[in-house]
Amino acid sequence: MNSNWGQSVQAGLRSKQNKGYIFPVTLIISVIVSSFLLHQIENYRLEKMFYHESDQQFELEIMMKFVWDKVEEQLKEEREEIISSFEMPRGEAAVTVKELGTEREIVIVCTTRMAREYKATILYDMEEKKVLGWYETIKLIT
């Protein structure tokens, strides 16, 4: 009985003579898979940040368009007093007007709830009812 057990142990030892390649191969494969997974997670995070910033900039542009349309409408009606602030669901806008003879300098500052800011300085000719210049600054704070 002892001899049968000894023979089966020797047969098992002979079949396991693979010189230890399993562990390094498994380790390399797990490193490759983990690296790929981390790369994909980082790509997802960066893409999410990019779209968040794009959405913030888009909101600012929509706010600026809305405010400019209102101000331009008031300028064409030749109102003396132009509304100086607008409250919107995603932010607010402030408008200041400075008269420069026949021209007016209009400064519109739109700010979102997340402190992103879009500032436009517009030179508007009151006689011809057209924009002479538009200078803008967008400040995205993270």
UniProtKB/TrEMBL annotation:
<keyword id="KW-0472">Membrane</keyword>
<feature type="transmembrane region" description="Helical">
    <location>
        <begin position="20"/>
        <end position="39"/>
    </location>
</feature>
<keyword id="KW-1133">Transmembrane helix</keyword>
<dbReference type="Pfam" id="PF14173">
    <property type="entry name" value="ComGG"/>
</dbReference>
<keyword id="KW-0812">Transmembrane</keyword>
<protein>
    <submittedName>
        <fullName>Uncharacterized protein</fullName>
    </submittedName>
</protein>
<dbReference type="InterPro" id="IPR020372">
    <property type="entry name" value="Competence_ComGG"/>
</dbReference>
